[in-house]
Write a structure and sequence with these properties.
seven-stranded parallel sheet, alpha/beta, 7 strands
Length: 225
Amino acid sequence: MAKPVQTKVLAVIGQKGGCAKTTTALAVAVAAVEAGYSVAVIDLDPQATATSWADRRGADSPAVVSCQVSRLGQVIEAATKEGAQLLVIDTPGKSTDAAIAAAKFADFVLLPIQPQIYDIETLPNVKDILTLGGLPDAAVIVTRAPIQGTRHTATQDAAKGQGFNVVPVVIFERVAHGDAGNIGKTATEHDPHSKAAQEVSALYSYIARVLYEGEKHHEHAKRRA
C-alpha cells in the first residue's frame, strides 16, 4: 500500500468509561507503525492513560502527546508539519467537549462500546456529538466482548438499529491486551500469533481501507438522523 501524503486523523470516542478506548487507540496506532506509517497519538484524557503507557514503553514510535482540548488544533498542525501520516486521538469518557473537538478534526471516528445496555444507551448522545462535530464518517466497534455467547452480535444489531455503521470486527475480552499494556506494548507486539493480535490486525486493516483507499467497508450505508 502506498503511503499517504496527506495526514489522516482517527478519533476514538465513547461516552462511557471502561469500553477500551485507550487500548483500542493504542492498538491501532501500533499496528499502523508496524505497517510502516509515521504515527502520533494525541492523548486528550486528563488521566493521561496513553501517556503513561508511552512512559512504560520507552520508545519514540508511536509518539504520544498529552494535550488539552483547547490545544488540539495546534497539536494536529504541528504533528502534520512533522510528517505524521496518521494521528490517533484518544478521548476521555463522559467528556462531550473533547469528543466534539476530536470529531471536528477526524477523517474517521471509531466508537467502541461494550456489549451491555449501559453502553448501548449512550449511542443517542454519541449521535448528537457526531452531529455537532460535523458528521464525520464513523462506525461502532464492539469491544471487551465475552468470548462465549452472542451478546456482541446483539449489540451490533442494536447499533445498526440506531442508524450507526458497524465495524465487521469484534474485539473480545482477552488477557493479552492487559498483559501487553502493562509493559507498554500492544497485543500485536506482545503475542503476534494470539487471537487478540488477529482481531487488532483485522480492525487496522478495516481502518486503513477506509482512510487510505477511500473505500466504504461498512455493513450499512451511511445513514445518520
